[in-house]
Amino acid sequence: MRIKIFWAIFLFLITFVFYFFSVENIWFSLDDCGNVIAGIIKSKKDLIRIFLEDERNYLYPINFNVPQANFISGFYRPMQHIPFSIIYYLFEFNVKAYYFLNVFFHALNISLFFYLTSFFMPNIFAVFAGLLLAFYPIMDWITWISTLHNFLATFFMLLSLICFRFYWIKNKFRYNFLAALFFLFSICSRENTIFLGILLFIFSFIFSEYKNLRLKFKFAFNKTYLFLFIYIIYLVLRIMAFGFESLPRTFNNICMRFPAIKELVS
């Protein structure tokens, strides 16, 4: 365990130092100011508001007519506004402080990724995998402040996977609960982690010790049923935030891209 802690700290430090101190001139760009200013949490009302709004409301001037979203097309990413608000109250508009968030969570993700992969391969290979992830070529957007949701989603996803791994081995409810909770935080950070619960169900089904399909399905369901509740909660949150008003327009857009769907339902 000590060697794992050593390598985790090593990967965190080398990643953080490289990215944070290699950038001298940095400033807000694109939708950064909108995300920071419009998403500041000043009261309980603001906290509720960020969980019930389309992220795109923060990306444009107030006089811009943002296309109406629905529970499918809306950007639901409220989690990043919590650390944004903390940084704002501590440092106001010191851009280096916001950049610190991106670098900190990226470095933390590398350590978590190493810890997770070290369960399945020798430490030296897990370290190498962590270095590959830390310094893969397409990292220029780390200076884009508004991409914090990417790092947060990855952070909570890795925590969810680690907790699920402990639940798989120790079969203690608290690990399953934490895995599901972190999954909720992950999809509330960015939508691209939404398939994690489904993938864990498939994993549980495939690696079940049972041969009978019904028993394999029951085993997988018992392992991942809390993730089903998370999907329901997330669906309700999106419906509360966006509603169904523009759903027909979204369906028409899908049919334009996939004509076979229109022919199928017509």
Describe it:
It is a single chain. The chain is globular. It is mainly alpha-helical. The chain has twelve helices and no strands. The protein folds into two domains: 1-25 and 104-141, no CATH class; 29-92 and 144-265, no CATH class. The protein has helices at 2-21, 32-38, 44-50, 81-91, 95-117, 123-134, 148-170, 173-187, 196-206, 213-242, 247-257, 259-265. The protein starts with a helix and ends with a helix.
Give keywords.
globular; mainly alpha; 266 residues; 2 domains; 12 helices; 67% helix
Secondary-structure topology with pairs:
Blueprint: H1 2-21, H2 32-38, H3 44-50, H4 81-91, H5 95-117, H6 123-134, H7 148-170, H8 173-187, H9 196-206, H10 213-242, H11 247-257, H12 259-265
Which series of helices and strands comes N to C? HHHHHHHHHHHH
Quantity of strands, as a count: 0
Helix content: 55-70%
Number of helices, counting only DSSP H or I runs of 4 residues or more:
12
Structural class call reads mainly alpha
From the N-terminal CA to the C-terminal CA, the straight-line distance is 60 Å
Cα-atom Rg, whole angstroms? 21 Å
**Number of separate domains:** 2
Largest sheet: none
Chain-averaged pLDDT:
87
Tell me the β content.
under 5%
Which ranges are low-confidence, i.e. pLDDT below 50, for 5 or more consecutive residues? none
What is the overall silhouette?
globular
